[in-house]
Design a protein that fits this description.
Layout: H1 2-26, H2 31-61, H3 66-94
Length: 95
């Protein structure tokens, strides 16, 4: 089960990285593109701190094994990459 979650997370992260790289190469060089990348990065960093706080609480209060913790970290990082991609797509459409 853990391996399936890691594979799904890697696919999601690949999608997010693809969106980020394609946007950076196509539109990320002009002023609007840099502004969109900055706003998306701002949202991603805020999400990182929020998710990290939740992760610390979960690990602190529950007895989590090392395998589950590893899967959780991979899922969280993939989620952050997906948040960045969704932010880029949103700001690209609405700005």
């Amino acid at each position: 089960m853990a391996n399936i979650l890691i594979i799904i997370s890697m696919i999601i992260a690949g999608f997010g990285l693809g969106k980020y790289i394609s946007f950076s190469k196509e539109e990320g060089t002009d002023e609007r593109g840099k502004f969109i990348l900055a706003k998306a990065s701002h949202i991603t960093m805020n999400s990182l701190f929020f998710i990290f706080a939740i992760l610390v609480l979960v690990v602190g209060f529950l007895n989590v094994s090392a395998e589950i913790l590893g899967v959780l970290i991979v899922v969280v990082l993939s989620l952050l990459i997906l948040i960045n991609a969704i932010s880029i797509m949103y700001f690209r459409k609405n700005m």
